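> Could you send the Dynein regulation protein LC7 prediction when you get a chance?

Sure thing. Input:
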Amino acid sequence: MNAVSPNQAQDLAWLLKGLADEVPVIRGSVLLSSDGMMKAAHGMDRASSEHLAALASGLFSMARSAGAKFDGNNEVRQVVAELKSSQLYLTWAGFNSVLAVLATGEADPAVVGFEMARLIKAVRPFLDTAARPPATASDDWNR
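Output:
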């Protein structure tokens, strides 16, 4: 498995920049681990990128829960939120990974979705996030 640890310093922001270059209506994007750790970002400052990663993790988790309850499995292909003047897209990007894209309100969802899927398909093994190791006794903060 070519999984990337959430703490590993691997710069994947160039992939997100390429996506924004392909689809100019993209305002910003974040690649995150499914538990909300930002792995790479483009088009936003660090605070906004981390905020988007946390929001995306929560929304994606809720979609997985809805799928498990009402669809018989927790696989999520895409979550789309249409805001007043923006669109937010969340897509599964590999093992424990999610791609979040914030686009303008005028964005064509078919184009954004297609380009996100194309990017993920092209580099999917490198987008995986390794599972976190279980906590050990030395990780106990209450000692």
